[in-house]
Structures are given as C-alpha cells and as structure tokens.
Write a structure and sequence with these properties.
The protein has about 450 residues and is mainly α. It contains 18 helices and two strands. Strands 1-2 form a two-stranded antiparallel ribbon. Strand 1 and strand 2 form a beta hairpin. Helix 1 runs parallel beside helix 12. The longest helix has about 35 residues. The protein is globular, with a radius of gyration of 21 Å. The two termini are about 40 Å apart. The structure holds phenylalanine (PHE). Phenylalanine (PHE) binds next to helix 1, helix 2, helix 10 and helix 14.
Length: about 450
C-alpha cells in the first residue's frame, strides 16, 4: 500500500498540479479535478488492484490469466507502452530536480535573486543541450538500480519514513507562504472558482491530472497489486492513497500560488517552469534572514522531492521490466537494462525539446508535450475505461467481491458492492468515455 502511495505522490503533485491548475484557471479546475479523482480515478485504481492481486501477474500477463484469448490484453500493452513514454519525460523533470538539488547544495549562502533571475536561470538550465541530459541519465540509472534489485522490499521500507517527512516540510512551507503579501490573492485563485473559465479543455486537463497524479489507467498499480498480500484491504487502501495524494497536491498549491502572486514577473500560466522558479523564491523569502536555515530547508526539500519522484519513476520502470522479465524469460537485470536504454534515448529527445529541438512539433506540441499528452490525456483515460469495463462486466462477480472483501451477504456488503459495481460498469466508463470522445472530436 505504501509503495502504491509512493507511486502516486511525486512530481505530479508538486510540479504538474500547480502548473496545470495555473494554466487552467485555478479553483474551477481544482473542483473538477477533485470530482475526477473520486468518481473516475479511484474506481480505476480499485479495478487495477483487483486485476493485479487476483492474477498475480504483470500488466499484460494478468489479462492472459484472467481472460485468456480475449482482446483485453490490449489494456496491458497500453500500460507497457505508456510506461516507456511516461518514464522518458518524467525523468526530464526529475533530472531538473536533481540539477537543482546539486546546485542548492553547492550554492553560496547569500545567493539572492529576484524572479527575473530565477526565471532566466531556469530557462538557461533546461535549454542547455548537455546538463539536463546528464541529470536525466543519472536519474534513470538510479531508478534502474532500485528496479533491477526487485521492488518489493526496498520501496516499502523507505516510503514509510519519507512520506511523512515530505508532508511535514510541505506544511511548514505552506505556513510560510501564507504570510506572503500575495496570500489572499493566491488562495482566492486556488479556492474561489470562476466557472466562466471552464471549457472542455479545462475538463480534459483536470481528468488527465487526476489520472496522472494517482498513476492509474496504465497498469502501474495492477503490477504493484500483484505483489500485495492477501490481507491487504483494497477499498481502504485505495481511499487512503487518494486522500494522501490529494492533500499533498492541495498543500503544494497553497505553497505555490500565494508565492506567485507575491512576486513580480511570474505568471500563474508559466508552464513547466512554474515550480522551479517560484520555490527558490519561497525559500529565499521565508528563510532568507537566516541563510543557514534557508540552505538546510531548500536542500532537504529538494532531496525529498527527488525521492518522491524516485518512488514514482520506479513504478513506471517496473511495469515494463516486469512484463519483459516475465514474458520473455530474460533475467530481471537484462529486462531492466532494456527499459533503461530505451527511456534514456527517448528522454534525451524530450529534454532537447526545451532547447535545440524546440522547433520540432507534432500537432503544435513539442516532443515533451506530446508525450505528456499521449500519456495523461490519451492512454490513461483509455486504459481507465477498459479497466473499469473489464472488472465490471467481464470478471466473475464473485471473484471481484472476494478481492474487495465484500463477499458476505450482509446488507452493508451488498450495498457497497452495488455502489462499486455501479461505478465500474456505468459511471466511470461512461463519464471518462464522454470526455474522451469529446476530446477526440474537438
Ligand atoms: N503519480 C505520479 C506522480 O504524481 C506519476 C506517475 C504517473 C507514476 C504514471 C506512475 C505512473 O508524480
């Protein structure tokens, strides 16, 4: 369960959420996002848990066990393909985090900078052809090291310690951020919805963010659930993961937006650089009077963010590694090397799309944006529809009830079963489906 939470909490919460919320109007986006989390993404997560634990196999293998000969395995292949794509571009941002961490460690204490400097520093760094690629390669190699040794033991152990630490430091920063001059404006932006700004694009982005932040739709969690013990209770686990993940995202919003409205020269619509420009400013402002403290807090925060990114990237790597290892009977090591090599190559392409390959676009998107679009707004919702439909309509009712610990015939269990099956069969697939089709037609 902790490993699943580790997969969910990551750059999606602290980097992608503020960036998407900023670009899509703030509070209205957040409301739609919350609905998507609980009505759509959570059922998909439960579905993945059921599929993974009942089959005890990787993303593709699970469908071969549960529905042999049927086309549902496509869902598993969507997972493997998305695993490659998402790890490639996620590592770009994780690489930036690594770069910033190293920089924060070695930078002089009294390194004051205003927002324009910070923005320029970010742009210079990400558009460099060499440094971000090196950071990205290092990050993927670290991921590789953990994955090739086997996920089950390592992550659990340190998720237990790191997650509360990350949350604690986020809360401290949130309190400081609330003392900044732009606090009221920032909170208003985040919590006071203006529905006139909502269009289909905002809804699609909110749904994409809900899926991305919970790591659902691409069988990451099904792969993890194949390692769950029989005692793990799936419904409370899914619910807890959703709650923890949502809290982290909202706290990240509470840190970023008051700060954005307190600095001249940064817009909420800044895009992928938002957090990297604003956070150093927050550190500087909150702890600037005590440089040592500023140094400690920023390094600690960087390190925790990096580790949160690592627990997510491990889960992305694991989908494809588990598939290759179990299907082609090659060693775990060799399977992991294949994934690593492919992702480093694709990752460098994504990284260069912030610099020298910026002009290469597909349908108006850079390669980095294209990968993000394909994963969050295409494969994840599509996988989500397929997973819910499979669990709701194709799997044996009894097996699903057993997995969900709802097998007795008490009224309460029957009521819960009805509700969950309503979500699996109707609400989630139709809801996600309508938004998805609308997106394709627009
Ligand atoms: N949920 C992770 C995050 O918020 C990202 C992720 C996406 C992890 C897809 C695994 C699969 O950072």
């Amino acid at each position: 369960m902790l490993a699943a939470a580790g997969s969910a909490v990551g750059l999606g919460n602290i980097w992608r959420f503020p960036c998407e919320a900023g670009a899509n109007g703030g509070a209205a986006f957040m409301l739609i996002y919350l609905c998507c989390i609980f009505l759509f993404a959570m059922p998909v997560m439960l579905g993945e848990f059921v599929i993974g634990r009942s089959s005890r196999a990787n993303s593709v293998g699970s469908y071969r066990v549960l529905a042999p000969g049927k086309p549902w395995v496509i869902t598993g292949f969507i997972g493997v393909l998305s695993g490659f794509l998402v790890l490639s571009y996620y590592s770009v941002v994780a690489g930036w985090t690594l770069g910033y961490t190293v920089r924060d460690i070695i930078k002089p204490f009294a390194d004051e900078a205003d927002a324009t400097d910070l923005a320029a520093r970010f742009t210079n760094f990400v558009s460099d052809p060499l440094l971000p690629s090196l950071c990205l390669i290092t990050f993927i190699l670290i991921t590789h090291l953990v994955v090739s040794r086997g996920v089950e033991k390592g992550i659990e152990r340190y998720s237990k310690l790191l997650m509360p630490m990350l949350l604690a430091i986020l809360l401290v920063l949130a309190v400081f951020s609330l003392t900044m001059p732009g606090a009221t404006q920032g909170l208003k932006f985040l919590f006071n919805p203006d529905f006139s700004k909502v269009d289909i694009y905002v809804i699609i982005s909110a749904m994409g963010q809900a899926f991305f932040t919970l790591s659902v739709g691409i069988s990451v969690l099904a792969t993890y659930a194949s390692y769950f013990s029989q005692q793990t209770r799936l419904i409370p686990s899914a619910f807890n993961v959703c709650i923890i993940d949502t809290i982290v995202a909202i706290v990240a919003g509470i840190i970023i937006f008051p700060a954005v409205f307190s600095v001249q020269g940064v817009e909420v619509t800044e895009g992928p650089g938002l957090v990297f420009i604003v956070l150093p400013y927050v550190f500087q402002n909150c702890f600037g009077s005590t440089p040592v403290l500023c140094w400690i807090v920023s390094v600690l925060f960087d390190a925790l963010l990096l580790l949160a990114a690592l627990t997510s990237s491990i889960s992305m790597h694991e989908i494809s590694t588990a598939y290759i290892h179990e299907t082609y009977h090659v060693s775990r090591q060799r399977a992991a090397w294949t994934v690593t090599a492919v992702c480093i190559s694709l990752g460098i392409v994504c990284s260069l799309s912030f610099g020298i390959w910026n002009a290469i676009t597909v349908a108006g998107m850079t390669i980095f944006e294209l990968f993000d679009y394909l994963v969050a707004k295409f494969f994840m919702p599509l996988g989500g529809i397929l997973i819910c439909t499979f669990v709701g309509w194709d799997m044996k009712h009894k097996l699903v009830r057993e997995q969900l610990s709802l097998a007795t015939d008490t009224i309460i269990h029957r009521l819960q079963t009805h509700t969950i099956f309503f979500l699996f069969r109707w609400l989630a697939p139709l809801g996600i489906g309508i938004i998805f089709v609308y997106e394709l037609l627009k």
